[in-house]
Amino acid sequence: MPSTPSRFLKITLYFLLFLLLVLPVLYFIFLAPQIRQAQTRQAAQVSSAIESLDIFLDLSQTTFALLGDQLSDSPVPLNPGYIQDKLDKFISTWRNTALVEAVFVDNKGRLLVVSNDPEYRSLPSIDVSDREYFIWSQTARPGEIYLGLPILTRAGAFRGQYIVPVATPIFRNGQFVGTLGMAISVNNLAKSFLDPFKLTDSSRIYLIDTRGVLLYSPFPELQGIDYLEYLDEHPFPGSQFVRKELEKRAQSLESGTLQVILPNAETKFLSLMIIAHQPIVSESGHWLLAMATPLGPTLKLTAFPYIKQLLAVLILIFTFLLFHHFSAPKRKKGRKGARNN
Question: Model pTM?
């Protein structure tokens, strides 16, 4: 006759079946609510970061507009020395912030005065007549402010870096005489006003344009690359779905959250990420602030302690069953058939 399974094997099988039934319940009881809470908290942090950014941009534009009024209304001739002095004083009040440069461009689009670091002031005249901020200033009215989308600088102290251009036209006697501009460093903006709002130490801040180009990344190897193309060149299971979702979010004017699997630039492995994003909107268009947090470290601080306690209880139950099995006296098998008297 076939042998029947031992009690130990039965206990083990029942326990494994119990775990298979319990683990999904554990997910919905402990993990799912914790993930939703983490997403909600991260979205709130992103919203606070945007508010901090808006305050800085509003304040810097207000003082910038006052400088423009001084240059327009001053009886002093607009010679380079006078302009240089005004721009130097303006930049000194914003030292160690994201506002890193002030410039004056003549009405032909030639860069005449630069204020940032003395070693860059002797640069030859640079033609910026094709830049959107200068084209805008030629038809703008006195006192109007242009806040542009991030651009890649072509020369000067911040060559090869992304800056947010701000501009206002300068008039004398009703005539357009030039453009006053300032540059806000995207890198400094992220480090000073956005990084402090990270959800956890493992959270990462990214600034992205509508094409998917990373304007700011904490990882130098990713800075300035088209992240959508990067996903095409480094595929993984589900990467096309992730690509389409990220492209849609980058072009959207709505804030939101999502869970996706992405390559972790630190560990070089795929990680489940929770991402919160919100657009940074101006009259010129929009770009995107995104905060990405690996789910593992986040749950380790929240749900995992509860799961560990429950698993400890399950292990105790299994241990008790094993102890009961090995300590219980074994029954002797009776003889087959009835004994004849």
Answer: 0.78
